[in-house]
């Protein structure tokens, strides 16, 4: 690890951890969505909306700290990118839940549960990795595994699209379900963006 002569602003680490922990909360709400009835889905959407607002607050706190700090633990651009990518994950998860409610989807297609399981695992890994930013130790396995999960998510997404276009669903239902599975895929991509940013930071700090 590179030796530093200047002090480091350490509050960023806690804020990144808080943001990642909130994403775990969001992923658990996604899991609750599976098999929930219409009334329960509305309540889950409300809790997800509250979690997304908490995520926005965490992101704004990071940006405020970034703008008011003379010394940062790593490059300002990387702090901004990491915070933004974490925020994107919550945005996509909240959007997916909201669409399920707004579109009054009766039954999610088979395979969505696999998408959500991948997101839940990526959320756990991301939350576990954030404290490692303090030392930059033992982070390699994290970004390798998240990249593997994103590849898995791509495969699941392609199979879901093939299922949606097999003629079982009418055109309007296809449009609704496709938008939901596409947003879940964007969440998986956002996890990969976080992992890639962490890798960039680690390489610079090594």
UniProtKB/TrEMBL annotation:
Q: Which residues form the signal peptide?
A: none
Which Gene3D superfamilies does the UniProt record give?
Phosphate transport system protein phou homolog 2, domain 2 (1.20.58.220)
**Superkingdom of source:** Bacteria
Positions in coiled-coil regions: none
Q: Which InterPro entries match?
A: PhoU-like_sf, Put_Phosphate_transp_reg, UPF0111_domain
Family according to the record: Belongs to the UPF0111 family.
What is the recorded name of this protein? DUF47 domain-containing protein
Q: Say which species the protein is native to.
A: Streptomyces rhizosphaericola
């Amino acid at each position: 690890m590179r030796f530093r002569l200047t002090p480091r602003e350490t509050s960023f680490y806690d804020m990144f951890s808080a943001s990642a922990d909130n994403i775990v909360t969001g992923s658990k709400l996604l899991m609750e969505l599976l098999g929930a009835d219409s009334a329960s889905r509305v309540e889950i959407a409300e809790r997800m909306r509250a979690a997304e607002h908490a995520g926005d607050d965490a992101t704004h706190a990071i940006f405020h700290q970034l703008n008011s700090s003379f010394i940062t633990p790593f490059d300002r651009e990387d702090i901004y990118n990491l915070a933004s990518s974490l925020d994107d994950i919550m945005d996509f998860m909240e959007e997916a839940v909201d669409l399920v409610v707004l579109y009054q989807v009766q039954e999610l297609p088979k395979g969505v549960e696999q998408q959500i399981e991948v997101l839940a695992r990526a959320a756990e890994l991301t939350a576990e990795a954030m404290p490692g930013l303090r030392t930059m130790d033992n982070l390699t396995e994290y970004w390798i595994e998240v990249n593997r999960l994103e590849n898995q998510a791509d495969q699941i997404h392609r199979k879901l699209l093939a299922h949606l276009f097999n003629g079982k669903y009418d055109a309007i239902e296809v449009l609704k379900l496709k938008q939901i599975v596409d947003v879940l895929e964007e969440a998986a991509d956002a996890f990969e963006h976080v992992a890639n940013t962490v890798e960039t930071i680690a390489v610079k700090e090594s």
